[in-house]
Design a protein that fits this description.
The chain is mainly alpha-helical. The protein has one domain: Cytochrome c oxidase, subunit III, four-helix bundle (Four Helix Bundle (Hemerythrin (Met), subunit A)), CATH 1.20.120. Helices cover 72% and strands 0% of the residues. Helix 1 packs antiparallel against helix 4, helix 2 packs antiparallel against helix 3 and helix 4 packs antiparallel against helix 5. The chain starts with 21 loop residues before the first helix and ends with a helix.
Length: 208
């Protein structure tokens, strides 16, 4: 039998907020990987940009203008929606930390609605760039940017809905309060990435 002293950890909580919980680290390391993917996409965009005199480059199907600039309407509306959606998500985050179940239910539902509307607006954004994904390299990289971000919007909205269902139907325990905070971090990241992509897709063509 060993006589070495040991530390009794039986009274430690199984879950905790932020850096004290392994889920926090897993979520943020995943987001770091996804950030590197978007960084590669952005680098690809600007690499292609230097190869064209006109940006966006002309396409044969569009004869009205040599530089069909992407329309700002849907992209701007989506940007405003996502930024405003941070408000209920922050409130959901805070309510989880305060152990306020009713507030968490309300704010998660509002966030889920914002997510659904953002996905619908993204569908209109594809047509607003005037290029098909196979028109040229510009069309491909822009569609891929929009598509990858839409994929994250869909994942984020699905996670929000699932957590909301749990909070309504099941126990409001510490584990799922931590999940709410983790979803909130994911939302902030999705919005931050979109602000960068929005500026690149919609405004860099106007600066050239």
């Amino acid at each position: 039998m060993s006589t070495r002293a040991v530390i009794d950890v039986s009274e430690l909580p199984q879950h905790e907020f932020d850096t004290y919980d392994p889920v926090w680290w897993g979520n943020n390391l995943l987001l770091a990987i996804e950030t590197s993917m978007f960084a590669i996409l952005i680098a690809t965009y600007f690499y292609l940009r230097q190869n064209f005199t006109l940006w966006p480059p002309p396409v044969a199907q569009l004869t009205a203008t040599l530089r069909p600039l992407p329309e700002l309407g849907y992209g701007t509306a989506n940007t405003i929606l996502l930024v405003l959606g941070c408000i209920p998500m922050v409130l959901a985050d805070l309510s989880a930390r305060r152990d306020d179940r009713r507030a968490s239910q309300i704010w998660l539902v509002i966030c889920a609605i914002c997510g659904f509307v953002a996905i619908v607006l993204r569908g209109f954004e594809f047509s607003a760039v005037y290029f098909r994904w196979d028109s040229n390299a510009y069309g491909s990289v822009v569609w891929f940017m929009l598509g990858m971000h839409m994929l994250h919007l869909m994942i984020l909205t699905t996670e929000t809905v699932l957590v909301a269902i749990w909070v309504f139907k099941r126990e409001y325990d510490m584990k799922h309060r931590v999940d709410i905070v983790t979803v909130a971090i994911y939302w902030y990241w999705v919005v931050a990435i979109w602000l960068i992509l929005y500026a690149i897709i919609y405004f860099t063509p106007r600066l050239g």
